[in-house]
Each structure stands twice: as C-alpha cells, then as structure tokens.
Design a protein that fits this description.
The chain is mainly alpha-helical. The chain folds into 2 domains: 1-156, CHAD domain, CATH 1.40.20.10; 157-296. The protein is built from 13 helices and no strands. It has helices at 7-31, 35-54, 67-76, 78-94, 100-105, 107-128, 131-145, 161-169, 186-204, 210-240, 249-277, 280-284, 289-305. Helix 1 (7-31) packs across helix 6 (107-128) and helix 10 (210-240) packs antiparallel against helix 11 (249-277). The longest helix is centred in the C-terminal third of the chain and has 31 residues, at 210-240. It starts with 6 loop residues before the first helix and ends with a helix.
Amino acid sequence: MTASITTGEQAQQLIAHQLSRVETLRPEVLRGEDPEALHQFRVSLRRLRSHLSQFGPALQLPPRLNRARIAALARATGSCRDVDVLQEHLERQLLPRLDPREQKACAPLQRQLKRQRRQAMKALQAELSSDRAHRLLNRLERWCREPRYTSLGQQSLAEWLPEWLQACGGSCFLHGGWFAAHPSDAELHELRKRIKEVRYGLEALRGWLGEPGEAWIRDLRDVQSCLGDLHDLEVLMQLLGPQSPDDDAASWSSLRRLLEEQRQERWQQWLELRSKLMQPDRRRSLVRLADAQASTQEASGVRSQG
C-alpha cells in the first residue's frame, strides 16, 4: 500500500495486472486441454470487469472500452468452465462413493458432459480468435500504457476509502438471496455472483483494510464456495432427470440419493454462514471497514508515542 496513491493509479495497476494474465493464459486456453488455465483465464476476465465497474467513476475510458464488452468476453468462457466444474464434481466427489456397477451407469452422463465441453470449447476458441476480441484487448492495453483519469481518479484513494467501500458492499445484504428458503431457489445463484463482486471489490482495496478486511474476504470466499457447490449439485440433479432406464434404476437412485445428501450438507453449511454474517453488528461492519482500520492505525500511533 502506498499512502499517496490515487484511486486512478490503483485501478490502473489492477487492470494492467489482470490484462497481463489474460494475455499470458490465452494461448493455453486456445489449445483447449487445460481446465485450470481456462479457470484462471475466466477469473482474470471477471476481475477486469470488476475493476472497470468498481473504479469506473475514476477512469476516462474510450467509448468502445467498457465493462459490458469485457463481460461479454467473460461470458464466452462460461459454458466450457461450467462443464469442467460439473465433471470435476462428478469424478472427484461422487463417483468414488459409488460401487463399480453404479459408476458404470454414470457413463452416459460423462459422455454427455464431454460432448458439451467439445461444443463449448469450439465456440470459445472462435470467440477468442475473433477480431472483436483482439480489438478489445488491444484497446485496453493502449489505455494501460497511457491511462487517463477523472478528477475523482486523481484524488487520494485513502481519503475516499469510505465512499469506495460504501459503493462496493453497501447493498450486499439487501439481496433477496439471503432470505431464500430452499436450496433450489434461483436467488442463491444470483447472490453468489453478488458476493463475488463484493469480494473482488474488497480485494482491490485490501491494502487499506487490515485484518478486519481480510476476515471479510475469507468469510465471503467461504459463502461463495458453499453457494457454488449448491448450484453445481442442482445442475447435476437436473441433468440426471426424473427417471432413468429400468436396468439402471437402482444405480441412478443411488447417485440421486448421494447428490441429495451432499445438497443437504451444503444447505446446512449455508444456513450457518448466513446466520453468522446476518447478525446486525457483523453485517454493518462491512461498510465500516475504513473506520475500523483508521481506529487501529490511531491506536498503533498512540502506543508508539507512549
């Protein structure tokens, strides 16, 4: 953390870092063989989108360089990454808990997922190789070399930290997903995306937030992971469908029972996390992180003088 850094300078550093990661990972993603490379590529695109949105009031960007265009590129990675996540969950967490006959009954589902991934990867490769994608990333690279900021972007980030925190997380607990009554509620998936935005926003400011900020980042990551598992289990249950071939009925039933057990486990975990974070003092502390850090620094200064 640099005490005198402006908001614009902080944003430029974050954007340049993620752009560098995107350019480094793109060749590996185009080869289509490494799910982890695709995951990291998608994360960097999402962080780029988040930084452009979070610090938008501080940045002067060309008209054709905006959050929406980065978001469109990130969405192109979605189908392929979603299949990778489902395959990993099936192969690492579900199949090892089934007997050989039950595992064999899952072969059609595995083939279906592999087929979907091939189709999704083909579409992704076409998008990443397009002139549209090249132009977008080139514009972003040019801006990073010669960034331009608004008057707000030229102000000290430390002095405007409370306002940036309010914009980042002020409405987080107003989302309807916090009040969902069933693990299949679609609001939970939307809440997970909102929580991810807040976490990315806090991580962009983490040098100014101290341990209270780190604690919030950890908690939000736990919530995001739990809700992500719930969503993946819901999608897998939908892929299985309500019925199965007669000769595989018992095996299919075992898999569905296992999915339901895992869903209930994650749901209980979610209820515990929700109860913890929805406590009045805890949820209000999110937008008071700047005040908490200022108090810590003042107390430290008093001790050092003593």
